[in-house]
Design goal:
Number of helices: 13
Largest sheet: 5 strands, parallel
CATH class of the largest domain: Alpha Beta
Helix content: 40-55%
Distance between the termini: 81 Å
Number of strands: 14
Radius of gyration: 23 Å
Shape: globular
Structural class: alpha/beta
């Protein structure tokens, strides 16, 4: 009998050791960000944010006894490189989930890879085609571009603006925004009087703006990411155009004001995540606490304010950790946990995902803001 008890004790000890070892296995998370290159204003704060969050979580013991092991690669904004690095994360680094890429074009290129390999991807890009139609393994944290477009049109209705000129960048983000704006305008009975396009590398948009002036729109909607929208803003000032200008949420950071110049940017309106104006929103807003804590943490670590773009990575990480706590740390369980996300308060909004919605944000994710004296103000 004593021998049986002894054998049972040994077996129990081995079982406890084995299960604790399994629990202690690191959770390998991959990330693809445009840290350098033309989209570095997106990727750099995303990388800094994610590394900061991982350090903080690991210092507190990790999640469910497991530390997070992070693998971050710089795509330089190149879709081909993003595909190569995604493959490396999956095949070599054995990650269970990927956060990023930073741009719509890179994300669209990477999606077939993660779908084939059955690894969850949480993109930090806004294009609606990333999650509509729904792909089993693809999610994203920025609100869909049609939500931003609707925010603009709802605000424009208050100003009785009905005729619009479009100026969109000729990349995946611009093409997606253009498509959604045109469809929404038709649905609302609004008129697109001019439809101009510019290249991401263009440094002068005066020809397009000169043509736009001839159509006498009530407002101009520019859709792109820096530096193009800043060039458009400066060119409008140089041409003496007094037409109201809306920008997309793709420029919702102080970098845009810096590039355009405060004088040229004065009065520009856009839908922005609440992080840009969290000190101006209602004290009862459910996001306020998260926004303040993230900004303070980022300022303490890097000596500068947090950006909306870094917030996309913040939300991606929190979605992963919540999914792990809810369902487990394997790719399939993380995917399931992401779909079960309900009322998760993040930097970008309050997430409510489902099998039919892999973004989970609505109009409440944005505030309409107006640039006033070189800073953000609520547009009322």
């Amino acid at each position: 009998m004593k021998r049986l008890v002894s054998l049972f004790s040994v077996f129990l000890a081995l079982f406890v050791f084995a299960t604790s070892s399994i629990a202690a296995n690191p959770i390998r998370i991959g990330a693809l960000f445009s840290v350098t290159g033309p989209a570095s204003f997106l990727g750099e704060p995303e990388k800094k944010t994610l590394e900061l969050l991982v350090r903080d979580l690991n210092s507190k013991g990790g999640v469910q006894g497991s530390k997070v092991e992070l693998f971050v690669y710089d795509t330089q904004g190149d879709a081909t490189k993003a595909v190569q690095l995604a493959t490396r994360l999956i095949k070599n680094d054995k990650v269970v989930v990927i956060i990023g890429p930073s741009t719509t074009g890179e994300t669209m290129a990477v999606m077939p890879v993660v779908e084939k390999e059955r690894i969850p991807l949480i993109s930090c890009a806004a294009g609606i085609k990333i999650t509509e139609p729904v792909k089993r393994w693809v999610f994203k944290t920025p609100a869909n571009d049609h939500v931003a477009a609707e925010k603009i049109f709802n605000y424009a209705a208050k100003l009785k603006q009905r005729k619009f000129a479009l100026l969109t960048v000729s990349d995946s983000y611009g093409a997606s925004g253009r498509e959604q704006i045109r469809a929404l305008a038709a649905k609302k009975g609004l008129t697109i009087v001019a439809d101009e396009v510019y290249s991401p590398k263009d440094t002068d948009m005066t020809p397009q703006l000169t043509r736009i002036r001839g159509f006498k729109p009530d407002a101009v909607i520019c859709w792109g990411t820096n530096p193009g929208p800043a060039v458009v803003t400066r060119n409008m000032k140089q041409l003496g155009l007094k037409i109201p200008l809306y920008q997309s949420h793709g420029v919702a950071s102080k970098k845009f004001i810096e590039l355009a110049g405060a004088a040229a940017a004065e009065g520009v309106m856009l839908p922005a995540g609440k992080l840009a104006v969290y000190d101006l929103i209602s004290k009862n807003d459910p996001q306020l606490k998260v926004l303040r804590e993230y900004d303070q943490m980022y300022r303490k670590a890097f000596g500068t304010e947090a950006s909306t773009f870094g917030g996309y990575a913040y939300d991606g990480f929190q979605l992963v950790i919540n999914a792990v706590r809810k369902a487990g740390a394997t790719p399939d369980k993380i995917r399931t946990g992401l779909e079960q996300t309900r009322k998760m308060v993040g930097v970008s909004g309050v997430f409510n995902m489902s099998p039919s919605d892999h973004n989970g944000l609505d109009l409440s994710a944005f505030e309409m803001v107006r640039i006033t004296r070189g800073d953000w103000a609520l547009a009322r």
